Amino acid sequence: MRNIGKWLLAAGLMAGSTVAQAGNPVFSGWYADPEAAIFEGQYWIFPTTSAAYAEQTYFDAFSSPDLVHWTRHRDVLDAKDVQWAKKAMWAPALVAKDGKYYFFFAANDIQNDKEVGGIGVAVADKPQGPYRDLLGKPLIGAFHNGAQPIDQFVFKDSDGAYYIIYGGWGHANIARLKDDFSGVATLPDGSQYKEITPQNYVEGPCMFKRDGKYYLMWSEGGWTGPDYSVAYAIADSPLGPFKRIGKILQQDPAVATGAGHHSVFHVEKGDRWYIVYHRRPLGETAANHRVVAIDRMSFDTQGHIVPVKITNEGVAPDPLH
Ligand code: FUB
Questions:
Q1: C-alpha to C-alpha distance for 180 and 113, rounded to whole angstroms
Q2: Is there an atom of ligand 1 within 6 Å of 223 CB?
Q3: Between 3.40.50.20, 2.170.130.10, 2.115.10.20, 2.30.110.10, what CATH number should domain 6-297 receive?
Q4: From atom 8 of ligand 1, which residue's Cα is the shortest distance away?
Q5: Is 259's C-beta closer than 6 angstroms to any atom of ligand 1?
Q6: Burial letters for 235-260: b for 16+ Cβ neighbours within 10 Å, e otherwise?
Q7: 43 membership: H or E segment, kind and range
Q8: What does the pLDDT look like over 73-123, one tens digit per residue?
Q9: Is ligand 1 within 6 A of the CB of residue 60?
Q10: How many Å lie between the centroid of ligand 1 and the Cα of residue 1?
């Protein structure tokens, strides 16, 4: 039955339906760069559609009450609703603010400042959209400090400030967002884009705060190969400096390859942490044949992240209610 369900889902015949599926991958279909969020008492995952390059022009979303039963919401943001986006729509970052949901995305995979594209932001009244372009143009539409404007993550600090951390081509920048997300503000040092690139950084940053410390995580290696992986650093400020501590997620030749570009769920009640990431099934070598998985993440008594064991079993049900 599960195989029939997977096939129907892959074929789009069960769009919007709920499919019970314990284990990794957590839902069927080629998806990557998963963004984890908890909205309205549900777990949400917003991934890149890991179809052929020219077909990466829309995003689906997934919701779950318990990390096991997932509902697919099709086409929550589509290039047809973003006048300047033509291709390569990647790596969602979601924020709930003042009753609205904001969906940060990259589009067009720009190679230089003459091309139109970069990081945009769309807005909706509900987590499942439909999302509409907020600005009518990219929020970050040029290279700064050598960082390709892709792979955004939005972090809300305890003082209410929103920061965007982003960057491909081996450079990570942080910028403070204006309150209405219409652009970036000026940082205390007078700059708008501060480079915080740690050693070995490639792309896919993610930030959270725990016990007063700022954790920056990122992907290393090449995303098309088996060695893609995740490492991290800890700092006293979101602006760094971030010194690499070590790798905490990587392939397991008995389970999957290319494990990387992740985000995290933190269930405050019970203080449970999960890492949500993409990986390539064993035997698959096509670059975009990526699936989304969830495994437990934990910390040692020093606050260091314990290396994650990637599994086929995935996680146990963890109802939010
Ligand atoms: O999914 C497209 C690209 O692949 C992302 O932007 C990178 O982080 C890598 O995962």
A1: 25
A2: yes
A3: 2.115.10.20
A4: 204
A5: no
A6: beebbbebeeeebbbbbbeebbbbbb
A7: strand 42-49
A8: 999 999 999 999 999 999 999 999 999 999 999 999 999 999 999 999 999
A9: no
A10: 32
Q: Is the CB of 33 under 6 A from ligand 1?
A: yes
- 269: CA distance to ligand 1 center in Å? 32
Q: For residue 96, give both structure tokens.
A: 């709930």
Cα dihedral across residues 264, 75, 118, 261: positive or negative: positive
Q: Which atom of ligand 1 is nearest to the CA of 219?
A: 8
The gap between the terminal CA atoms of the chain, to the nearest Å, is 28
Task: Label the pairing between strands 69-78 and 90-97.
Answer: unpaired
Q: What is the pLDDT of residues 189-231, one digit of tens each?
A: 999 999 999 999 999 999 999 999 999 999 999 999 999 999 9
Residue 321: the pLDDT is: 86
Is the CB of residue 201 below 6 angstroms from any atom belonging to ligand 1? no
Could you tell me the pTM of the whole model? Answer: 0.93
DSSP states of 168-224: BTT--EEEEBPTTSSSB---TTS-SSEE-PPTT--EEEEEEEETTEEEEEEEES-TT
Of the listed 151, 203, 295, 318, which one is catalytic? 203
